[in-house]
Structure formats: structure tokens, C-alpha cells
Amino acid sequence: MITTEVTFDELAALMKQAAGITVDPEELKDAAESPFDSFGLDSLGLLGIVGELENRYGVSLPPDSERCKTPQEFLNLVNSTLTAGA
């Protein structure tokens, strides 16, 4: 079981790495319920983040991970999957 949780800081770093989008982690946290597209992240960019997380943690994320609409929804799904060890 993985006890590490993906944070807003890590998500912001992944957005930069996988999609080339620079977002302040605090801004991301403050606007956690805002749609990803308000940060300039599209579904393809989110798919890149999903792939990076799957490689990093060796866990397959649910097929609908890239359909998450907000950072909070995405982190909830990712972290519940990681802690469940699925």
C-alpha cells in the first residue's frame, strides 16, 4: 500500500512537466474546484499527468482519471486509488 498522497505542489509540478503549464501551487489549491481548462490544461495534458503518475507509483489509475474536471476531483481520485493500492 502506498501512503504518499499527491499534493497540489506535486500536481502543479506535473502540469509544468507533462503539459508545459506553469501554475502556482497556492493558486491551484485556492481554486481547487475550478475547471482544469481555466488553468489552460486540456484532457491531453491531463492524460500525460495520469501516465506520469502511473509510471511513478507503478499503479494503474482508473480509466476515467483523465475525465476529471477539477484539480480537487483529480487529486481525490488519484489519492484514493494510491492509498487503496489498486
Report how far apart the termini are. Answer: 9 Å
Q: What string, H for helix and E for strand, traces the elements in order?
A: HHHH
Q: Which residue ranges are poorly predicted, with pLDDT under 50 across at least 5 consecutive positions?
A: none
Number of strands: 0
Average pLDDT, to the nearest integer? 92
Task: Note the overall shape.
Answer: globular
Structural classification: mainly alpha
How would you explain this protein's 3D organization?
The chain is an all-alpha fold and 86 residues long. The protein is built from 4 helices and no strands. The chain has helices at residues 8-19, 25-30, 43-57, 71-84. Helix 1 (8-19) packs across helix 3. The longest helix is centred in the middle third of the chain and has 15 residues, at 43-57. The mean pLDDT is 92.
List keywords for this structure.
globular; about 0% strand; about 55% helix; about 90 residues
